[in-house]
Amino acid sequence: DTRPISVLPALSKPLEFIMNKQIIFHLTSNKLLSPFQSGFRSGHSCTTLLADLIDSIHRGFDRGLTTCLALLDFCNAFGSVNHQLLLLKMKHFFGFDSASIKLLNSYLT
């Protein structure tokens, strides 16, 4: 049983790194990520997210508000993403240009 990442050609790893940096830059500079999104983000962690959550609950409690919390854990979230739907959303909702979408489509297929 081999993991797909271990069989990638040597040149694809730097390309993946560059594409990741460009995507994160685009999402960050255009403020397209929720401030509550902590997963896979530099400078964010479960600890800081938990501290923010506890602070928010305390503020609500002090103001007499009820707090509801829903936690979701998606099994195999990355492996079950529809690539065409992802690319469509990246183009229409997140402003990625056609050249970027074409490159990502080529990479994903």
Can you tell me about this structure?
The protein is mainly α and 109 residues long. Among the domains are: 38-71; 76-109, no CATH class. Helix content is 51%, strand content 0%. It has helices at 12-29, 46-62, 83-92, 98-108. It is elongated. Residues 2-94 form the Reverse transcriptase domain. GO terms for molecular function: RNA-directed DNA polymerase activity.
Short summary of the structure?
With about 110 residues, this protein is an all-alpha fold. The protein contains 4 helices and no strands.
Which helices and strands appear, and what pairs or packs with what?
Blueprint: H1 12-29, H2 46-62, H3 83-92, H4 98-108
Helix pairs in contact: 3-4
| Spans of at least 5 consecutive residues with low confidence | none
Count up the helices: 4
CA-atom Rg in angstroms: 18 Å
Chain oligomer state = single chain
Summed over residues and divided by their number, the pLDDT gives a mean of 86
Task: Name the beta content range.
Answer: under 5%
* Secondary-structure-derived class: mainly alpha
Helix content: 40-55%
The string of secondary-structure elements, in order, is: HHHH
How many β strands by DSSP?
A: 0
For the record, give the distance between the C-alpha atoms at the N and C termini, rounded to a whole number: 21 Å
Protein name: Putative RNA-directed DNA polymerase from transposon X-element
InterPro entries: DNA/RNA_pol_sf (IPR043502), RT_dom (IPR000477)
GO molecular function: RNA-directed DNA polymerase activity
Keywords: Nucleotidyltransferase, RNA-directed DNA polymerase, Transferase
